[in-house]
Amino acid sequence: MAKISPSAVCQQMLCVESPAPPCVFIVFGASGDLTKRKLIPALANLFKRGLLDNGFLFLGCGRKKLSNEDLRKIAAEATKDFLAESEKFLSSFFYVSGDYDDKNLYNEIQNTLVELDKKYGKNFGRIFYLALPPAMYPDVVENLGQAGLNKNEESFARLVVEKPFGKDLASATELNDCISKWFSEKQLYRIDHYLGKETVQNIMMFRFANSIFEPIWNRNYIDHIQITIAESIGIESRGSYYDKSGALRDMFVNHMLSMLSLVAMEPPPSFDAEHIRDEKIKLLRSIRPFSLDPCNEDIVRGQYAQGIADGKNIPAYRQEADVDKNSKTETYIATRLFVDNWRWQSVPFYLRTGKRLAQRVTEIAVIFKKVPHLMFASAGIEDLPANVLVLKIQPKEGINLSFEAKRPGAKMCIGTLEMDFNYTEVFGAELPDAYQRLLLDCTTGDQTLFTRIDDVKLAWGLIDNVLKNWQQNDAEPYFYPAGGESFSQADALIQKDGRNWRKISET
Ligand code: BG6
């Protein structure tokens, strides 16, 4: 029996965490931004938590001519704020340099891996991580395959790829065909880092480890659901990638649909990876195709114009570096969609995501139906707000439930109260970054939080027509001021149904 904090009564805590087996991460793009900002810190944290104690190595690969020592300096810099006494961790870092299309690089990787196995007397499982622009995936995979690195008789060989997995259905299928020539679906780990977030995983625990929510989790009790990923940041230094991508490809097809699947899918028979992924697929299959009828605007796209945030002047998207000065790329998207199955028939799901908005907020809000009969009407109360359950993903991770209650004093006095659970207050520590979860799962061979190919194809299939339609019409997006809350066309999408977006700045 563990008491976690004075504010939370926890009868018991059931924690199961399997440590990694002996493994080596072979990271392509080892001196790049993703490696420094995400991969090395995540590995350092797993190391600190003792989850890499069975043996861990890092073999960096890249075009830059670096020595083992240079890479260790990079790793030391990336972990200096939280990993003291890091000698043992840093001594696990090695580096080989070469061109990604040069077969010699792969022979050298093969030889180095054999030597490292010998040196440490272990058969390390091999995890090839492509922290590279996606255009380079086919070449690297082909070379890995031709060098025989896709197999590891003594242990395992796995491949991790970052999003985006393609830019539409055809290119995702083509990329998958290239990869599956050498790596099976069981060896392939497609990252959607949102699935690694603690609070996104909590959606499953919340729904399926409690019996009180599931009976009301359907069209009989839920009026609608809003999913929001609002970002206050812009595109940072990623103009050349983002301008070809846009919010639909960058956020909707992966992160937003993943959250929607978890919140709306049927209960899987077990916590087994395939059972969960099967349910996500069933859900994606039930999403009604978007109407392309312009009178029935179910997808609204916007682009940030010049504006002011925190008292600072923010340039328009079109003024950002590496962005076309006449770009029509969307930095905001709002959609209304329906899930055609028994549970969700006629319940609208409103999804929105945008850059340079008033605040950073990611949340799923479940808005319940109002009471069917207002028995307080005779006492002058003509309307009552609906109950709202908010699964707060970031920045303040937690759960909030609003409900009506009597206020003390006058006989007839009702007000809205909130039950608020905040992860950091209850569990103290900061939540582990998504990459810790995902890298550990990859070492243990747990694919639950990785995207399966049928998921990828269904998701692209859903937006393919929308993308084509935008391209053919070549229309301008709507413009919204940077630092703003919303804009009239995005508001109209939900207001035409007699509903309103939740305020970003108040959540
Ligand atoms: C990435 C997108 O996948 O997710 C970025 O490419 C976006 O554009 C980021 O900013 C948001 O992730 P997070 O974890 O900061 O919400």
Topology:
Elements: E1 23-28, H1 33-48, E2 56-62, H2 68-79, H3 87-90, E3 93-97, H4 103-120, E4 125-130, H5 137-146, E5 157-161, H6 169-180, E6 188-190, H7 198-208, E7 222-230, H8 239-245, H9 247-264, H10 273-286, E8 299-305, E9 307-309, E10 312-314, E11 332-337, E12 349-354, E13 361-368, E14 388-394, E15 398-406, E16 414-422, H11 423-427, H12 434-444, H13 453-473, E17 478-481, H14 488-495
Parallel strand pairs: 1-2, 1-4, 2-3, 4-5, 5-6, 7-12, 8-17
Antiparallel strand pairs: 7-13, 8-11, 9-10, 11-12, 13-14, 14-15, 15-16
- Rg over CA atoms: 25 Å
Q: Level of helix content? A: 25-40%
- Which outline best applies? globular
- Specify the biggest β-sheet: 9 strands, mixed
Low-confidence stretches: 1-9
Order of the strands making up the biggest sheet: 16-15-14-13-7-12-11-8-17
CATH topology of the largest domain, by name, is Dihydrodipicolinate Reductase, domain 2
Distance between the termini: 34 Å
Total domains, how many? 2
